[in-house]
Amino acid sequence: MQLKLPIKFIVILTTWLACLSAAESRAAQFTVVLDPGHSPKSPGAISARGVPEVDFNDKLTAAIAKELNKDPRFKVEITRGPKKNLPLKKRARLINALDPDLVLSIHHDSVQPHFLKPWELDGQILSYSDRFSGFSLFVPAKGYYAPLSKRAATLMADGLHEIGLSFASYHAQAIPGESRKWLDSARGIYAGDFLYLARTIKRPFVLFEAGVLVNRAEEERLSDSKQIKKMAGAIVKSIRDLACQFERDRRTRD
Ligand SMILES: [Zn+2]
């Protein structure tokens, strides 16, 4: 019996094999810089239960790095260790010097201060807002690497959607401190040119806000080790898909 395969299927199969062979080659390593947002000295947002954002960023970064390091195709660099302080300008210089294929800055979100309300937990008065939830992705809308950055964010948004997560739309709302510009309102991708790193990094760049820490239910999810692993798995799958796309583009050019 003669097996006839449609041309489209043959192209997909060839691409998949090309990605596999790239995975075996050190020369084709895809360098990913993971940049856990903030530092112990300036820890970012404070969660509804009083935990600093930097702790969440470090945990998610470690989970993503662990998953990426299982694949020999990837070389993983992390800008800052869990106890280290590294100012933003030094981060940018370090990242550009590493000349990576992708930069992923990892953060957790808050809301504008006027939405916060007080609540008491274990005798401590803390701030929360259950009004908003979900992840957000910020990429440069201008510059040479804008299209590749958006492509990376698109794969990440789709991967996060596949594991049942929703994106936050409040950054685009006409509220003081927000009114951010959508790049893809169906996927939670915003123009991030107002961010120092998005303007300064000379490589494909995505800033990932994994969820809203001041939302009490969302904080529970973001603290759960199984959920962190699941989210890291979705991000790594999207980076793997991106590496395959880059490899396919390179082979098309060669
Ligand atoms: Zn942050």
Protein topology:
Layout: H1 7-23, E1 30-36, H2 53-68, E2 74-78, H3 88-98, E3 102-109, E4 117-121, E5 124-128, E6 136-139, H4 146-162, E7 182-184, E8 189-191, H5 196-200, E9 205-212, H6 216-223, H7 225-253
Parallel strand pairs: 1-2, 1-3, 3-9, 6-8
Antiparallel strand pairs: 4-5, 6-9, 7-8
The structure holds zinc ion (ZN).
Features:
single chain; alpha/beta; Aminopeptidase; 19% strand; binds zinc ion
Largest sheet properties: 7 strands, mixed
Total number of helical segments?
Answer: 7
State the end-to-end distance. 36 Å
Task: Tell me the series of helices and strands, N- to C-terminal.
Answer: HEHEHEEEEHEEHEHH
Shape: globular
Radius of gyration: 19 Å
Low-confidence stretches: 8-13
Give the helix proportion (percent range). Answer: 40-55%
The CATH topology turns out to be Aminopeptidase
Question: What is the top-level CATH class?
Answer: Alpha Beta
**Major sheet strand order:** 2-1-3-9-6-8-7
CATH homologous superfamily classification: Zn-dependent exopeptidases
- State which percent range the strand residues make up: 15-25%
Structural class: alpha/beta
Extended strand count: 9
Overall mean confidence score, pLDDT? 91
Describe the structure.
The protein has 7 helices and 9 strands. α1 crosses α7 (225-253) and α2 crosses α7 (225-253). The protein has a single domain, classed as Aminopeptidase. It is globular, with a radius of gyration of 19 Å. With 254 residues, it is an alpha/beta fold. The strands form 2 sheets. The chain has a 7-stranded mixed β-sheet with strand order 2-1-3-9-6-8-7, with helices on both faces. Strands 4-5 form a two-stranded antiparallel sheet. Helices cover 41% and strands 19% of the residues.
